[in-house]
Design goal:
The complex is a heterodimer of chains A (543) and B (631).
Chain A (H helix, E strand, L loop, with lengths): L1 H32 L5 E3 L2 E3 L13 H4 L7 H16 L3 H7 L4 E2 L2 E6 L4 E3 L2 H9 L6 E2 L2 E3 L5 E6 L5 H8 L6 E7 L9 H12 L5 E3 L10 E13 L19 E15 L11 E9 L3 E5 L2 E4 L6 E11 L2 E7 L2 E8 L4 E7 L13 H10 L2 E7 L11 H21 L4 E5 L5 E4 L2 E4 L3 H14 L3 E3 L1 H4 L5 H7 L14 H29 L10 H15 L2
Helix pairs in contact in A: 3-13, 7-13, 9-10, 13-14
Chain B lengths: L3 H7 L12 H19 L5 H23 L3 H23 L3 H23 L1 H12 L8 H6 L19 H16 L9 H9 L1 H4 L7 H8 L7 H35 L6 H32 L17 H7 L2 H15 L7 H18 L2 H20 L1 H23 L4 H21 L3 H22 L2 H30 L5 H27 L9 H17 L4 H10 L1 H14 L3 H12 L3 H19 L12
Helix pairs in contact in B: 2-3, 3-9, 4-5, 4-8, 4-9, 5-8, 9-11, 12-13, 12-25, 12-26, 12-27, 13-22, 13-23, 15-18, 16-17, 16-18, 17-18, 18-19, 19-22, 20-21, 21-23
Classes of the chains: A alpha+beta (543), B mainly alpha (631).
């Protein structure tokens, strides 16, 4: 008996060995023969590991691993890089740095052949002209053959920077539209804080009536009720047609009398975004009665109207009572000077809804608030749906159309498009960057630049392919486990990078301003010279 | 020095520890198993061969642990050696009748083991404590890293942080059980250190249990290897069962739903937060029990029996029973080595008072609030005074006190954070409330329930806090159902007949559901304290828990409920199917397990391949997109 069970055991253990080996062999065979890109069965894509995922030598290329820099290091490096670059190598920076803002392109006309004497009258004409003509001493290139070249328009943001420098006289508004990545006032709040520190100003900007999401900066309390309409269909109480949704793409109609109190979020340290001295109610469609600070105002009920009330300096909270049949499009808390940044999160939005909003309303909002910069941060919601080159092109064109649309409605404003973060797809070997993300990033940059819109690649700035994983794995976490959203800390880091990129452009602007002032036409400017001039001027400038 | 692929195979890489769910593990196992098969099947069984088998598995296990945890394998070797030697001393002292020496050795061993555990598990907590008490600015300093660097603060290892070696809580408990079992004469000390090392490090159960007690496993060291055809099949079944649980019900649910909500609850609606809580209950069970299933299967193929660690825990009709079904090896360990020494269900011991004081101190440090500490001490004092004055209730009160302490310490075993303490405390309260409820008449039950429901509703109405709203709604539901049960009880009494079998079944179902919901709720505190940077865990965990409750208690937008459900329909389906399978009768599960085990091997092989293929689809499934995407 003992002997029999002993021999059975021996048989069984070898059966098990055989089974293990057979299973192994079949799986190996499967991984060799199974199509690498999977097999589509109905709606399901069946996939299986391929041999080179496991055997390092076969995949020598894919295994030449990029240095695994931690995001913290990377951030430090980027910052350091920016600081270094600011001394002279702006151009290089704006051509190659992953965290750069890509300036739009512009057509210029040049000539490179004959010369003609440069007279004062000609110089006067030229100074008004858009033509940039190479000057050599007292001669000027004649214009026998004018050539059209496409150059990077480094002066794109100059009007914005001029406005920011004059913000002490006339307030400047920056509107930040984005998807859920900026919900809770993430990213925008850091931008706002940093810009206000530099250029003055206060207030949290335009708020909906009332916030349906948590907001890092302010809290709201409401007595009474209202009906909310929104262009983003999931997030509203009722739907309605038409285009009257205002700058926040949502409209609220009070039911009876409603009182809204806005005050700093408890537990936050008070800083410039909490202090304001001007409250503006944007309304329209039908009249409303607005009471605040013991005074009652009536709106006219035109398509887009505003009631602006001066408040004592450094107010931190306000209570408004609104009644009537009109739409409330938003409440703006700002100051009469300096810069204010609006945070407009549109959850789930792909960035192609702007053409559906009333042109009149948007244009009046941008004009009355002196909006000088519109940031559009979209793409994250659509990347997972991109399945072909065609769909990427199609989506990019829609974004271009929307961006140009906004640009036309706000002629005084510059546009900056912020692309999506790194996004991943999972596979047995771990997560990999979505196959069409880089394609999207490249194409969107190219197309928007060509259409006169600046681009900032969040994907490149945060570290390119695979960075999302490292951001999630970082300690403290910089991105959440959905591999889509940044944590508050991560949002702060991204916003800081964006701000630094913008400020690098600003320093470049100042450098160029400095340069033009004592410009000597006899000076032949070569790049090495530019570097040294820039470096010395810069030191003085930024001391 | 070595080719890359060789390094890849043999060196420790912190970014890819060896897990059961990895291809690499199964290649490792196949190789180990082939060698194992050669060892056990060539020639006649003898003691030398037994030792060879154990030694071979010891080295395979050490390699496994090295691949999982790197040089922490030295810690494992150290506790193995220290407890092996100490157990011998204990036995020797006892043989010579020197009880005091034996006890001293036992204490030494426990101090070494718990000291190591505390060093790795509670360094941030302990430095915080020192800083709070003495106003110092002490930082965590890793002595082992310092030694590893050749007594230098810089070098290969960082001294500024202390990492937790994988599985340390499990094998420390295992060596404690060995010394304690030797001390209590439940097992003879193992003669050969190779045998003993194998017991401590046996790779299937090394990193995530079950915690194998010496008295159960040591005898197996000496047993001859045997594997019947049926065991082979059952082992394969457990492995597949475990892989499915781990990859589908745990990882898929976690990646596609649970993690993201817990990471940032404010981004999600109340419905999503509530769903995430329930999914987490499924996930944590599937993850842990899946891993254990695989461990049991793998061990069984090598002829070793690991104790059952889970017994369909969500079939438990009350929190007390739940702990007899959940992580059984830990519950039993705590019962044997903590609860009973505390005095169990008979008396309060020195340990009882010691732990009450210690727990109060810990609570004081974690919360920084004297009030909390005073409340804990006050409650404990009242219980003890009542117990001393009313001898009739003494036993019951002491038993409750001891089980409450056991639950709190069970919570702290998971980590020193306020959340784990709340989690342990809630479970303790659950058990005690259940025991009182069980022993109460229906009239008293309704009285107390009505009172507490009214209190919560009043508190909610008074404060309008979303968190109290959650509590109030939960109590109102329980109260309403209990009212029905009370009414039914009264009817039965008036008609003088027994409750019908159907009604009893419904009552049982309700009890199971309620227990599941309760356990799920306690997990809110458990999950939000897991996987965090220990330095900031406390605050962050607390914030997560509060934010989730706030979201759940805030008003729900019914339009989003359907939308969420439709967008995550896969996740919901897997959850529901998982629960249904979980609730299948044991008999039926046993039946299909045996049916599978006895399938012809070729068919089984095909099924294994098919299962691997299907599981692969889950591993590589696209991440669930953030919902509400509108193109």
């Amino acid at each position: 008996m003992q002997r029999r069970s002993d021999s059975a055991t021996k048989k069984n253990v070898w059966l098990m060995v055989a089974m293990l080996l057979v299973v192994g062999a079949i799986l190996v065979a499967l991984s060799v023969f199974f199509p690498k890109n999977g097999v589509q069965v109905g709606t399901v894509l069946l996939r299986f590991a391929s041999a080179d995922d496991y055997i390092p030598e076969l995949a020598a290329d894919s295994l030449t691993e990029e240095p695994q820099i931690s995001p913290e290091q990377l951030l430090a490096e980027r910052m350091e890089q920016m600081k270094l670059d600011r001394t002279a190598e702006f151009v290089k920076f704006f051509e190659t740095n992953p965290a750069r803002i890509s300036f739009p392109l512009v057509k210029r006309i040049i000539s490179d052949t004959a010369y003609m004497p440069l007279t004062d009258s000609l110089r006067a004409i030229l100074s008004d002209s858009a033509l940039i003509i190479t000057e050599y001493g007292d001669t000027l290139a004649a214009l026998p053959e004018l050539r059209e070249v496409i150059e990077v328009n480094y002066s794109y943001f100059d009007p914005l920077f001029q406005a920011l420098e004059r913000a002490a006289d006339k307030p400047v508004r920056i509107v930040h539209y984005g998807d859920s990545q900026i919900e809770e006032d993430r990213i925008s709040s850091t931008l706002r804080q940093r810009l206000q520190k530099r250029f003055g100003g206060g207030g949290v900007g335009l708020l909906p009536y009332k916030n349906t999401f948590y907001n890092l900066t302010v809290s709201e309390q409401m007595r009474g009720s209202y009906t909310r309409y929104s262009l983003i269909s999931y997030d509203c109480d009722a739907e309605r047609s038409g285009s009257l949704f205002g700058p926040l793409l949502q409209a609220s109609v009070p039911i009876g009398q409603t009182t809204l109190r806005i005050f700093p979020r408890r537990g936050t340290t008070l800083s410039s975004p909490h202090y304001f001295n001007r409250v503006t109610v944007f309304a329209g469609r039908a009249p409303l009665s607005v009471s605040l600070a013991d005074t009652t105002f009536q709106t006219r009920g035109t398509t887009f109207d505003e009631v602006a009330v001066a408040m004592p300096d450094s107010s931190t909270s306000v209570e408004l009572t609104i009644s009537g049949a009109g739409d409330v499009y938003g409440i703006s808390l700002s100051t009469d000077k300096g810069v204010t940044v609006d945070n407009v999160p549109l959850r789930g939005c792909s960035g192609s809804v702007f053409i559906n909003v009333s042109k009149d309303q948007l244009a009046s909002y941008f004009a009355t608030t002196n909006t000088r910069l519109i940031i559009l941060q979209f793409g994250g919601n659509s990347i997972p749906a991109l399945t072909s080159e065609k769909s990427v092109e199609f989506y990019v064109e829609r974004l271009v159309r929307n961006a140009k649309h906004l640009s036309a409605l706000a002629p005084q404003a510059q546009l900056l498009f912020v692309g999506p973060s790194d996004m991943v797809q999972s596979s047995l070997q771990g997560m990999r960057t979505h196959p069409y993300l880089r394609k999207f990033d490249t194409l969107a940059r190219e197309r928007l630049m060509a259409e006169g819109i600046a681009y900032w690649s969040m994907f490149e700035a945060m570290g390119g392919e695979g960075s999302m994983q490292r951001w999630v794995a970082a300690s403290p976490r910089l991105a959440t486990a959905d591999y889509i959203h940044f944590t508050r800390q991560g949002a702060k880091e991204v916003a800081t990078m964006l701000d630094e990129a913008l400020m690098t452009a600003y320093r470049f602007y100042r450098l160029r301003q400095l340069e033009t002032e004592p410009l000597n036409l006899n000076m032949d400017i070569d790049t090495t010279r530019l570097d040294s001039i820039a470096a010395s001027r810069f030191e003085v400038m930024f001391e | 020095m070595f080719p890359d692929w060789l390094t890849h195979i043999f060196a420790y890489d912190s970014t890819s520890p060896l897990l059961f769910t990895q291809f690499y593990f199964w290649a490792f196992f196949a190789l180990v198993y082939v060698l194992f098969a050669v060892i056990v099947s060539v020639g006649k069984w003898s003691n030398g061969k037994r030792l060879m088998r154990n030694t071979f598995l010891l080295f395979a296990s050490l390699f496994f642990y090295y691949k999982t945890s790197g040089l922490f394998v030295l810690i494992l070797l150290f506790v193995t050696l220290s407890d092996f030697l100490i157990a011998k001393r204990i036995y020797g002292s006892q043989q010579r009748g020197r009880a005091a020496a034996a006890k001293a050795w036992l204490v030494t061993s426990v101090v070494i083991d718990l000291g190591l555990l505390c060093y790795f598990k509670y360094p941030y907590f302990l430095t915080n404590m020192v800083n709070d008490l003495f106003g110092t600015q002490v930082q965590v300093f890793d002595v082992f890293a310092w030694v590893g660097n050749g007594f230098s603060k810089t070098g290969r290892f960082s001294v500024d942080s202390i990492m937790l070696p994988v599985g340390i809580s499990f094998y420390i408990f295992q060596v404690i059980s060995y010394t304690s079992d030797v001390y209590h004469d439940r097992v003879k000390p193992v003669d050969n250190i190779l045998d003993y090392g194998f017991y401590v490090s046996f790779f299937p159960q090394l990193v995530a249990g079950p915690i194998v007690r010496a008295s159960e496993f040591v005898p197996q060291l000496y047993r001859e290897f045997s594997l019947s055809r049926r065991q082979l099949g059952i082992a394969v079944f457990w492995i597949l069962n475990g892989l499915t649980k781990k990859l589908v019900l745990s990882d898929y649910l976690a990646v596609n739903f649970v993690d993201r909500v817990f990471d940032n609850p404010l981004l999600y609606s109340g419905f999503e937060n509530l769903s995430a809580l329930f999914f987490y209950s499924m996930q944590v069970y599937a993850d842990f029990s899946g891993y254990t299933d695989i461990a049991i299967g793998v061990a069984m193929l090598m002829g070793f029996y690991l104790p059952k660690n889970f017994n369909s825990p969500y079939k438990a009709p009350n929190p007390h029973n739940f702990w007899k079904r959940w992580h059984i090896s830990l519950s039993r360990w705590l019962q044997t080595y903590l609860y009973i020494p505390l005095g169990g269900n008979r008396r309060a011991s020195f340990g009882t008072y010691f732990w009450i004081i210690l727990i109060s101190v810990i609570a004081l440090i974690l919360t920084g609030s004297w009030i909390v500490t005073a409340v804990i001490l006050g409650i404990a004092a009242i219980i003890i005074v009542v117990a001393l004055l009313v001898p009739d209730h003494r036993k019951k009160l002491y038993a409750n006190l001891n089980s409450f302490i056991t639950m709190l310490l069970g919570g702290l075993w998971h980590g020193a954070s306020w959340n784990f303490m709340i989690w342990g405390g809630l479970n303790g309260i659950g058990i005690i409330v259940f025991k009182f409820w069980r022993d109460m008449s229906w009239h008293w039950r309704m009285f107390w329930l009505t009172l507490s429901t009214a209190a919560f509703v009043a508190a909610y109405l008074f404060t309008a806090s979303p968190i109290l709203r959650v509590a109030a709604v939960a109590f109102v539901i329980v109260w309403a159902v209990s009212l029905l049960r009370y009414a039914y009880y009264l009817i039965c009494r008036i008609r003088k007949r027994e409750a019908s079998a159907g009604m009893l079944k419904i009552g049982q179902g309700w009890a199971i559901l309620l227990t599941f919901v309760f356990i799920t709720f306690t997990r809110l505190f458990f999950r939000s304290g897991s996987n965090l940077d220990p330095a900031t865990a406390n605050q962050q965990a607390w914030e997560t828990a509060v934010n989730m409750l706030t979201q759940i208690g805030s008003s729900w937008n019914l339009r989003t409920v359907t939308e969420v459900f439709l967008s995550y329909v896969n996740v919901y389906v897997f959850f529901v199917v998982g629960m249904l399978v979980h609730w299948l009768p044991d008999k039926f599960k046993r039946w299909y397990r045996v049916r599978f085990a006895m399938l012809p091997l070729p068919l089984m092989t095909v099924l294994v391949v098919l299962a691997v293929f299907i599981l692969y689809q889950f591993v590589t499934a696209d991440l669930q997109a953030f919902i509400y995407f509108q193109f």
